[in-house]
Design goal:
Blueprint (H helix, E strand, L loop, with lengths): L1 H26 L4 H30 L3 H26 L5 H29 L3 H29 L2
Helix pairs in contact: 2-3, 4-5
The protein binds fe (ii) ion (2 copies).
Length: about 160
């Protein structure tokens, strides 16, 4: 009887130790290099997801159902396993307000800096179609930014 209690106590202690260890590990701040690598990896996984979906659509249109299904299934692994696991490690998702602030920052950068510069550069190089597309997308990003900002405002006024 006494042995059983001791074993139970030890098992309980081990459980607490494991949980404590995991908590301590997930709360531990990662190095700048690891965070940078996580970001690079996430960009790659997200890009692969989007690209494989396009490849899959192309294969499906051409009647190659087997290849289309295989590409789609691989795309899902990139997005729902690899990207999601890395995002969790990097702590990408926060509160709704934090997520909106993050999204506003990204859309704002795209709208006011990135696409503006890309469009101007393309026009200068004579890549008129690309310049037009960048400018059109830039306007979409402004709408995204403003819609997110309105949501954030509504959230803060609650
Ligand atoms: Fe992957
Ligand atoms: Fe956007």
């Amino acid at each position: 009887m006494k042995l059983r209690i001791t074993i139970a106590a030890l098992a309980l202690a081990a459980l607490f130790f494991t949980i404590g260890h995991l908590t301590a590990q997930s709360e531990k701040k990662m190095s700048d290099q690891t965070m940078q690598n996580l970001s690079t990896a996430m960009h790659g996984e997200a890009f692969a997801y989007a690209k494989y979906q396009l490849f899959a659509a192309h294969a499906r249109k051409g009647g190659n159902v087997k290849l289309a299904n295989m590409l789609e299934s691989t795309a899902k692994t990139e997005r729902f396993e690899h990207f999601a696991e890395e995002a969790k490690l990097a702590g990408v998702v926060g509160s709704d307000a934090d997520n909106l602030k993050d999204a506003i920052q990204g859309e704002s950068y795209e709208a006011t800096t990135m696409y503006r510069e890309f469009s101007e550069q393309a026009e200068k190089d004579g890549d008129h179609q690309a310049a037009l597309r960048f400018e059109e997308i830039r306007k979409d990003e402004m709408k995204h930014r403003d819609a997110f900002a309105a949501q954030l405002q509504a959230l803060e006024n609650k």
